[in-house]
């Protein structure tokens, strides 16, 4: 379970460039909940995930994960609980190492870091079996250098590596945005399967409103650092892209209304 209480995050506080990226976020995400996150550019989506992951500390508020207060924990310490996948397929893997060397690294998540690990013979069948699940034929290429893989193959491997040791929290920041539509759909199905199989507590940022509706058990919309929509269950299933667009324009309209108040 993730609990965010009164989270505020400024960038460039006190300067002319001041941005109030998270404006008093309160959010409770239950064990196994799969939350899709939408909002316009600059709404604070990545900042929200970065705050949970500990990429930086919030200016105020508290964060607990499974009842453990991690507010002051640095990113590397939270990495025991949290796996992340980003838009850029290059970020999740080591390009100069082989597929099985990458997997050997992933399986050590949360353990003490020693020298670069060798691939243990006893782990090899497990790696092959995991790769087979992807349906991309990578199980026959375990000795290939990851840098040779396509973006989609690499992102599939990244998803696998992020979840080989079950994380308490899975954070996906537009992880299919850089892929062609067909590959994006494959990675999305893979995501759905992995999240369901392991009952992972997940936040997935997407720009695709259809995906935001079709995937996950809950949907939140951010605008100017605030949560302006939070729906789940039946209500979420009834949502349409039109509803979301209407909500979106309403939020923009409020902005205009505020401006006109100011000008008036
Ligand atoms: N590291 C940073 N330094 C300065 N400003 C930042 C930083 N990260 C995000 N911001 C600003 O915070 C706001 C929210 O950004 P972000 O969370 O990346 O938006 P989103 O992911 O919803 O597009 C934006 O105005 C952005 O410019
Ligand atoms: Mg972002």
Automatic annotation (TrEMBL):
Membrane topology: Peripheral membrane protein
Subcellular location, record wording: Cell membrane
GO cellular component: plasma membrane
Molecular functions (GO terms): ATP binding; ATP hydrolysis activity
Pfam families xref list: ABC_tran
Superkingdom, taxonomy of origin: Bacteria
Organism: Desulfopila aestuarii DSM 18488
SMART domains (alphabetical): AAA
Keywords: ATP-binding, Cell membrane, Membrane, Nucleotide-binding, Transport
ABC transporter domain location: 2-249
Protein name as catalogued: Putative ABC transport system ATP-binding protein
């Amino acid at each position: 379970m993730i609990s965010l209480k009164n989270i505020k995050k400024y960038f460039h506080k006190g300067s002319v460039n001041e941005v109030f990226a998270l404006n008093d976020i309160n959010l409770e995400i239950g064990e196994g909940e799969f939350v899709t996150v939408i909002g316009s550019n600059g709404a604070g989506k990545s900042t929200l995930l970065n705050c949970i992951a500990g990429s930086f500390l919030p200016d105020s508020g508290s964060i607990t994960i499974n009842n453990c207060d991690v507010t002051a924990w640095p990113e590397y310490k939270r990495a025991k609980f949290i796996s992340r996948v980003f838009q850029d397929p290059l970020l999740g893997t080591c390009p100069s190492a082989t597929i099985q060397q990458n997997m050997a690294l992933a399986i050590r998540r949360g353990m003490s870091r020693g020298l670069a690990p060798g691939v243990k013979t006893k782990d090899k069948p497990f790696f092959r079996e995991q790769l087979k699940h992807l349906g991309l034929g990578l199980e026959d290429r375990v000795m290939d250098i990851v840098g040779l893989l396509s973006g989609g193959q690499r992102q599939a491997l990244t998803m696998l590596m992020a979840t080989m040791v079950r994380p308490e929290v899975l954070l996906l920041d537009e992880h299919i945005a850089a892929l062609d539509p067909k590959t994006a759909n494959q990675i999305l199905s893979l995501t759905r399967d992995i999240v369901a199989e392991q009952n992972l507590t997940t936040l997935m940022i997407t720009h695709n409103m259809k995906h935001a509706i079709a995937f996950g058990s809950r949907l939140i919309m951010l605008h100017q650092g605030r949560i302006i929509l939070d729906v789940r269950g039946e209500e979420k299933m009834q949502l349409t892209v039109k509803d979301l667009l209407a909500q979106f324009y309403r939020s923009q309209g409020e902005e205009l209304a505020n401006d006109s108040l100011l000008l008036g």
